[in-house]
């Protein structure tokens, strides 16, 4: 049986602040927290299978921020990040796959009419995991990747796009035992009828 869960109960609080600057930019900051009784979590069984179970309790405290700015008519800049402290009330205290922080930086240029070229850099902080085979807890280190993208709008209703994800071919795991693919290139066409 891979599912052994019941209802959970949570108390949540969140606050947001937003500020506009220079007519083309804004800053946003959010603070949030939650206390959850009976949080559903993947637990490694002696058989090596993962089962969804309710854990006693968990506390999640975090913050997130975002800055967007268009300093020039042909340039967009964006940075967003978040930090999270996630702990469970019982031993060992870890919650799996909840990174301590995430950051994304983005730059997009518009060199000519209809054409956009940009890149995004992602940084993900360390995160705990439970090994299915040994049931021991370990930590995946921080990871980063670069995405390069471009799009050309050849018609008011049509756009050709290309994305190269993990363009630097970094080795990282977002889930233990499952490495992310290397460079991944996608090409597509959007057309509105």
Provide a brief overview of the structure.
With 193 residues, the protein is mainly beta. Helix content is 0%, strand content 67%. The strands form four sheets. It has a nine-stranded antiparallel sheet with strand order 2-3-6-7-8-9-12-13-16, with no helix packed on it. The protein has a three-stranded mixed sheet with strand order 1-5-4, with no helix packed on it. It has a two-stranded antiparallel ribbon with strand order 10-11.
Can you describe this structure?
The protein has 193 residues and is an all-beta fold. 0% of the residues lie in helices and 67% in strands. The protein has strands at residues 3-4, 9-21, 25-37, 40-44, 50-54, 57-72, 75-88, 101-109, 115-124, 127-130, 137-140, 143-155, 158-165, 173-175, 178-179, 184-191. It is globular and about 60 Å long. The termini are far apart. The mean pLDDT is 93.
